[in-house]
Design goal:
Helix content is 52%, strand content 9%. It is mainly alpha-helical and 248 residues long. Helix 2 crosses helix 4 and helix 3 packs across helix 4. It is elongated, with a radius of gyration of 23 Å.
Length: 248
């Protein structure tokens, strides 16, 4: 007797690939009746996937127009990878797909931004490091504090096209070189960021002490070397934005 997981897998395979993938005995009763029910269910799932993409990329849809977005969405959903994803993750490869389809950079970059925003929104809860957590530490103890990125924090460089689009709603991005997306508490925050902040953030995908981070970012051989005086302001701004967490 097939397990529930095997039945679900066979059912989804038949929905995605057609009646030829429906095993014998999957449903009781006449096959024609089962196919009719599956057709209705397949239409419902197809519609749900299209709506999920629309809800995930509303700004991108507005930029390219509903009709063109719908055409791109259907082409995207015809591929096997999206159909294997739950609705919450169905748009993961959509920005890359848009790029491969030859969509202009303002479109692909906006889609990537919207996905990064959603990633921050759905990220795991974690307490963000606060400046008060470092109060009272002497210099040696401060350098031994271990940090890593907050799971809800994302960073991106801003091209001219993306900057002009986002600055309409977030004026502080008008002159920014990069943006930071965080969710230190209940809501997602999008803020301007400096390249110095990016230098630090890029090295915190793995845990590091503040001392090692300072050494890595200020060593003279690095192309993106920071001046020592730039290190602490960038670190403080990242902490204030809720982009880091302390590792015990």
């Amino acid at each position: 007797m097939a397990t529930l997981e095997q039945v679900q897998t066979a059912f989804m395979s038949a929905l995605d690939n057609g009646p030829g993938y429906m095993p014998e005995g999957l449903f009781a009763g006449p096959a024609a009746r089962a196919l009719l029910g599956m057709r209705v269910h397949a239409n419902t799932i197809s519609h749900a996937r299209l709506v999920a993409l629309e809800d995930t990329f509303p700004k991108t849809r507005s930029l390219v127009g509903h009709e063109h977005f719908n055409k791109l969405s259907r082409l995207f959903l015809d591929r096997p990878e999206p159909s294997a994803q739950p609705l919450a993750h169905i748009g993961r490869q959509f920005p890359l797909f848009l790029s491969r389809e030859g969509e202009p950079e303002p479109v692909t970059e906006l889609a990537a931004f919207e996905w990064a925003w959603l990633t921050s929104y759905h990220a795991a809860d974690a307490r963000a490091l606060q400046l008060g957590d470092l109060a009272g530490k002497d210099a040696a103890s401060l350098l031994d504090v271990v940090l890593r990125r907050h799971p809800a924090a994302n960073f991106a460089l801003l091209s001219d096209g993306l900057r002009s689009q986002l600055a309409i709603e977030i004026p502080e991005l008008a002159n920014a070189g990069a943006l930071l997306i965080t969710r230190p508490s209940a809501g997602v925050i999008v803020a301007a960021a400096s390249l110095a902040m990016l230098c630090l953030f890029a090295r915190l995908d793995q845990r590091q002490t503040i001392g090692n981070l300072f050494a890595a970012c200020t060593e003279p051989e690095r192309k993106d070397q920071l001046q020592p005086d730039d290190f602490m302001p960038a670190l403080v701004t990242l902490i204030e934005a809720g982009a880091l967490e302390q590792v015990d």
